[in-house]
Known about the structure:
Elements: H1 5-148, H2 153-267, E1 289-292, E2 302-305, E3 311-313, E4 318-326, E5 330-339, E6 345-353, E7 364-365, E8 370-373, E9 384-391, E10 394-396
Antiparallel strand pairs: 1-2, 2-9, 3-8, 4-5, 4-7, 5-6, 6-9, 9-10
Helix pairs in contact: 1-2
Amino acid sequence: MKISPMIKKAVSLAMSVAMVVALTVSTNTMTLADDKKSELQAQKEQAQQELEAIQQQIKENEANKANAEELKEQYEQQTEVITNQIGLLQQSIAQVEQDINTKQLEIEEKQKEVDIKQAEYDERWAGFKDRLGAMQMLNDGGSIALLSSASSLYQLLTFAESLEQISSKDKEICQQIEAERQELEAQRTELENAKAELESQQAELQSQNDELDGKKVELQNSIQQQDQTISAADAAAAALAAEEEEARKNLDKAAAELDAYLNSQVDKYSDAALTCSLNFGPALPTYKYISCVFGTGGHRGTDFAAPGGTEIYAVADGIVTDATYHYSWGNYVQIYHGKDDQGNTYSTLYAHMISTPIVSAGQTVTKGQVIGYVGSTGYSTGNHLHLEMKINGVLVNAANWIPH
Length: 404
């Protein structure tokens, strides 16, 4: 049957319009999908930043509390030392005070001895003066009568000698008494000097005691301040814990929404005739060690530390459902591997690639094909491959399925 040129032209025009419409719809759908993913990623990033900000506040609060507790312990130790020193000082002060009282009693006893010796001296001195007066009277005339009554030269000489002996003896006794008194006075002065020295020592010890009392009061005030800081930190910790819980819920919600979106990207290819044999291959030709295992601290995947630039392989045949950048994953690729015999779906995600993935969404890849290179982009510390695996859209431990 021969088709007229007019019909051919009409058909051609219709096909062109259909292609344009299809391309426009496809482009618009892709644009909307990209916008949705960007929005979800932005929401998750904001939630992550809010959580990290609160966690940083928690760390700072814990550090402040730990510092306050350390200072409190130091102050308490210093207070204990000072309290012991005060106790020793008070013992010393009490001993010195006892020594002062003893010295005072000794001084009083010595003063009594001095007074007794002084009275003895005064009595002896008074008698001596009386005898000197009598002798003076004898010398003034009375002695002539006594001398004239002497019947012999012997009596005369004996009388004069006796007077001289009496005078000399009185002088000797008075000198001895005075020497003893002066010795007692010297001993009393020595005791008073010793007492004064003890009083000076007591004053110095009391000054040290007062100074330590002041330091003890300062330390007790410092301990009280640290107690207040610790109490404030405990109150802040409780408030921050509540904020952290709320922020974590927001992050979990944002992550769940992003996961749902990523799963929806996989669902787009769920009708593809892909059979997953479960014969997975390694994701890397070699690696140093596993730096973080699945589930640790909520970790979503398994981290394989490897040199930057190491090739990353697709672990099985599949279709790339996402190949772009994420603030946490950095440059990443997500691959859908199809269904097993029971109808379970499998997908994997490879994160922190050193550069833009060398595959793109919608591209078919084969097991062992290079899809990117190890790096440290996104939320990462050091070169490694972050590998995630999902079965029926639920995260599982990739290490249980993929050889390593």
